[in-house]
Write a structure and sequence with these properties.
This protein is an alpha+beta fold. It has 2 domains: 2-80, 3-Layer(aba) Sandwich (Glutaredoxin); 87-198, Glutathione S-transferase Yfyf (Class Pi), Chain A, domain 2 (Up-down Bundle). The protein is built from 9 helices and 4 strands, in the order βαβαββααααααα. The protein has a 4-stranded mixed sheet, with helices on one face. Strand 3 and strand 4 (62-64) form a beta hairpin. Bound molecules: glutathione. Glutathione is lined by residues 9-11, 33, 38, 51-53, 65-67, 101, 109-111.
Length: 210
């Protein structure tokens, strides 16, 4: 498989973690977002949304959207499973995943920040307030949920899709200087996950395009 990725993309980071957790080797195809390579004809002819990540399968098919890729990996690839066996617990994991991937990340990605700056005239302080606002709303709920669900990871001691999505979002929060003191449970889970090889080798700093 080949992963179209950018080292700082949190959506691509999710997929890198899941591929590593499942022990699946892949080739790394860097798409430089700062050079707008995601909007090139060569890329959008295969992935019309012009976003990373995209995963090219061994048969040449291309999958876009990180959650679609993660669900495909979960359905077709070997253990460990990244969802619990119990349907209620699966729903709880997906609920945390949706908080991150639907309610935090889309409001804070590169194109939204660029739009705020260039189309709406927002300055650095306004953009920082915007960023922190959406992260805080989501992280407050996650912090409270973790108090009843966490072990070493978000739900018990084994990584699930919740950890796969939380770790990149927290990486991004540190990058954009969101105060993390109010979130001790989140910090504890993320610290543990980052000590695991599958997470450590997916980190932005160690990617070929870093
Ligand atoms: N919902 C998409 C989000 C993908 C996304 O926003 N990717 C960002 C990087 S994290 C991107 O490619 N941004 C480039 C752009 O907006 O032009 C997913 O989960 O894959």
């Amino acid at each position: 498989m080949k992963l179209y990725s950018y080292y700082r993309s949190s959506a691509a980071y999710r997929v890198r973690i899941a591929l590593n957790l499942k022990g699946l080797p892949y080739d790394y195809a860097a798409v430089n977002l700062l050079h707008s390579e995601q909007k090139s004809e060569a890329y959008t002819s295969r992935n019309p949304q012009g976003l990373v990540p995209a995963l090219e399968l061994d048969n040449g098919e291309l999958l876009a959207q990180s959650m679609a890729i993660l669900e495909w990996l979960e359905e077709t690839c070997p253990p460990p499973s990244l969802l619990p066996a119990d349907p209620l617990q699966r729903a709880r994991v997906r609920s945390m995943v949706n908080n991150i991937t639907c309610d935090i990340h889309p409001l804070n990605n590169l194109s939204v920040m660029n739009y705020l700056r260039s189309e709406l005239g927002a300055g650095d302080d306004d953009i920082h307030r915007w960023y922190c606002n959406w992260v805080d709303r989501g992280f407050k709920a996650i912090e409270q949920t973790l108090a009843g669900s966490m072990g070493d990871c978000c739900f018990g001691d084994q990584p699930t899709l919740a950890d796969v999505c939380l770790v990149p979002q927290v990486y991004n929060a540190y990058r954009f200087k969101v105060p993390m003191e109010p979130y001790p449970n989140i910090r504890q889970v993320v610290q543990h996950c980052n000590s695991l090889p599958a997470f450590a080798s997916a980190a932005p700093e160690v990617q070929p395009d870093a």
